[in-house]
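Predict the assembly for these two chains.
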Amino acid sequence: MNIAEFGLSMMARFIGCSFWQIEIYLGVLLKSVTVSMLSIDPSKKNSFQRFISDGDLVIVYERHDNMKAVKVKKGSELQNRFGVFKHSDWIGKPFGSKVLSSKGGFVYILAPTPELWTLVLSHRTQILYIADISFVISYLEIVPGCVVLESGTGSGSLTTSLARAVAPSGHVHTFDFHEQRAGLARDDFERNGLSNLVTVAVRDIQGEGFPDEFQGIIDSVFLDLPQPWLAIPSAARMLKQDGVICSFSPCIEQVQRSCEALRSNFTDVRTFEVLLRTYEIQEGRIQSSDGDESYRRITHTRRKRQCISSEDNGENTDKATSIPTVMARPCQEARGHTGYLTFARLNCQ
Amino acid sequence: MAGELVGGHQTSSVNPRITWEGCSVLLDINDGDRLVFARLSPAATLKIGDKKCSLRPLIGCPFGSLFRVETGPNGPYLERCVHSSSSGANDMGVQEGGDRQLESESKDNRALIDNNSAQNLSSEDIDAMRRDGATGDEIVEALIANSSTYENKTVFSQEKYKRRKQKKYAPKVLLRRPFTRSICEAYFKKYPNRIGFLRIDTLSLLLSFANISAYSDVLLVDMVGGLLTGAVAERLGGTGYVCNTYFGGTSHSLDIARIFNFSSEFDSRIVQASYSHLCSAESLDEEGSKMHEIDHPAGIQSIIGRESSTKCVPSTGSTQIQEAQSLRNDNSSLDEELGNTKENLSSGQEGLHENNATITYKAVNPGKQASPDAIKMWKEKGFNSLIVAAPELEVDSIVQKLIPLLSYSAPFAIYHQFLQPLATCMHKLQSSKMAIGLQISEPWLREYQVLPSRTHPQMQMSGFGGYILSGTRICNNSENCNGNQ
């Protein structure tokens, strides 16, 4: 038991309540001490300049395609194929450290960022990925201080990035008509320390439009709805002049109807598709075969993420006549479509 | 919480929506046909076709306002007009369905012959109309009325015709705000090589991959004219720092960052420091500053042509990057820098620059030298993110040198025009185990035309917007991680 716990238990005995009750009350008070994904206050450093503490939400990186979010708790353990990892071993280390398991395997502990969060969050709905997210934020011209409306919240993937873009003085008001999902999203933002920047409300934007209190003060609106044309007139009332709206729709028919609805009050209507193509690299050796210069063979290494060390001699390559080279090619799996992004600016009166 | 005045930040000053005298604007002429950056000084003018108009009517108007070129007694001038039916609804084309729709489907162009004889109005007639004070719209209507083939065209064709005539006789000027998006698009369309072919979606990805947010300390290598610096500064919102670093004696040009209309608060966050400054250890305190000045030429000070030291980097076998071109040991670079003081971004704070060799980290074109305190803090804590946009250089060695300046778990994004250098870089990073989560991405962007019965991807498309290598720095156990266990 450390000093803090000892003190708490003494206090509990003195007051006559349970140790756990005290800890909960203090936990609420001390909430601000745990790391936030973003810095909202210059006096509180963001996670990159801090060490891992008890209660932090961290990203455990096992492999490039295998990561998860874990809440650090003293006494807890993480079990995976690399072994058993004690949370207590992590506490006090800087983010970005390599930590070892009981049997010598390792993982990395990273600080959460909106990008990493998008890759690890639990999908309650289909989410937006970094290609769409980054384009939306640029095209909606969201900068610190902006006030942004979003509907629907979904799993909060875009919302997290919006919060980062408006921090520290702006705000994101996000709406979802599904009460349970709204609650889960609210919990996620809380856990990531974003509650000061994001307000989640349960509301059917297609049916009721946005609340009147936002009229004329909104910088940007983002719609990810099945029938966005129903929400567009309301969005037009909310936006400041020259404000920007974006509607995300998977189907072209939705896009057509949205564009029709946009043309009454908006100008500069543009529709895009954004995708990312990823590449993988391999190290290989180009060697000439049988002294015949016109025919050169490329030998690949065993696995694409391994590199050839100087002592490595796994292949039958003749080092004297082969040249090491790194080659790149697109990954076989690629995303073909996510949705169409339609942007427009509110007409100037 | 509306967030209008939270935390002492006035959203209106951060995000101004009305022009003011002296601000820079982007003028969109005829729906993107021509893009011009201009500064709204009282004497500024704009030439459209053969007409020269003063830009004074634009001062004090909201961004997004539309103007038309009209002819008045004193010559052509810009008149503000309302968006109304001139742009929005027309573009949509066929509005009501029913009869008009059926009509358009039955018409086609099989009988139309192109022999230049369709228009009955001559150019003299048009000039006469102009002298009589006809508006541009009236001229277009007259042209339509006098065209013998107009009625035989399909509705879509008629629209195209009308729009073409409008562009010529009633040109529109749209007043746009210079923002990362509009500036990047304008440059990418006109002078892509000046920004290293950095397309807007690629630029957005860089900002996301590198987790740029308020209060971040961002390390940049910006060799795309200042576009990246401006974009990052915009996202920082007047907090944190953008530190532009360079190898050698002179910093890179950051002209484009000037177009962003930054307040002095924002400007003060844009600083620069040569690489040798950033990693030189002892020579940054008071006693060592003199020694520092001699050994590490930077900015105005003692540009004596000493070799910029890279010996502080314990890298093994790193190849020499192109530092030679940036070493200048004469006064020409000095004059160039001083000559720009009038338009200096951070003029508010730094005043004039003394032309002497004493140790002063005075502001030069644009962005002042980083203060020793800041550099010290960065050496202790590391930067929060790194973005490199050096499309002409060999990135490999730059990256090896700069990544150690990052905090652990800090993300980075490297932009390049070519794939191979990034592949080599990624491979080296994998071997050295300096970073994880490495990924090479190529963004793909396609725009659509969405009109009733005419929806399809646009015929023109950008084939290339560069490549990005992203990753996160980690602490290898072989290094001292500063853990307190």
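The mean pLDDT of chain B is 74. Residues 180-482 of chain B form a domain with the Rossmann fold fold (CATH 3.40.50.150).
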